[in-house]
Description:
By secondary structure, the chain is of the alpha+beta class. It is built from 4 helices and 4 strands; from the N terminus they run E-E-H-E-E-H-H-H. It folds into 2 domains: 1-48, Pemi-like Protein 1, Chain: D, CATH 2.10.260; 50-81, no CATH class. Helix content is 41%, strand content 25%. A two-stranded antiparallel sheet has the order 1-2. It has a two-stranded antiparallel sheet with strand order 3-4. It is elongated.
Amino acid sequence: MMRKIFKTGNSMVVSLPKEILEFLKLSDGAGVNVELDKVERKIVISPAELPLAASGINATFAQQVDDFIEQYRPALEALAK
C-alpha cells in the first residue's frame, strides 16, 4: 500500500492505516521497532514487544517454548516430581 512521507517539525513521518494499527493492536504512543533492510532496500516496522525485547527473547522463540511445554506437559510434570 502506497503512503507518502511528510514533515512534522524536524521529523519525517509516514502515517499508518487504521486497519494495520487495529490488526497489530497499536495505538498512539505504542512502541515500534524500525529496521532498515539494506539488501531489499526497505524499511521494516514491527510492534515493540517490551517484556520479551528487554529479556532478549523474541516472540517466535517464546511461542516455540509455549508450544513445547503444552505438547510435553505430562512428561515435564512427571520429571518435576
